[in-house]
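re: ur question from earlier - yeah i can do the single chain one, its not a big deal. heres the input i used so u can compare w yours
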Amino acid sequence: MYALKNAFDAHDRNDSKSLDICEMRLLLESFDIEFEDDEEFRELFADMVGGCDGQATFDELVTWFTIFEAHTKFMKFDDDNSDSLEIDELHQLFQEMGINISAEDLEKAMQTGDSNANGSLSFDEFLPLYSVLYKAERDQKKHHAQILGHVNLATDLEKNPSVSF
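and the output i got, formated as tokens:
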């Protein structure tokens, strides 16, 4: 998220706290995101901004990026190109995210998301589940960073015991 915020700020040439279509294209290209043609990018940008002002805020970019990442993961694990994830594909996705899940909980996750009860998750059914997984993964990384911060503090205290609080 920090890299995205830094890139957003760097591409906001006029400090407007929003990016116009040219600034956004440069930002996305800096992350090696490519588009088939200008029309595809214009449609993406129109979907991203939602309003009439032609400017994308950081929050709009984060929302778009979360959906983009979810779609990228979805397509990566859709091994049979069925435009849906079956339970074994969902399990592989969980494993890549470092989530150890029991068969019972995996089945519950599948049933909860599978709104049409066809035994698989379409992207629209997968997106709410991914949002929860993404938040859990992000929270876990924050927790690990906090632990490492405490470890670094403990190391610093060992090196310099005269430091006080």
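The domain at 1-68 is CATH 1.10.238.10 (Recoverin; domain 1). not sure if urs matches, ping me
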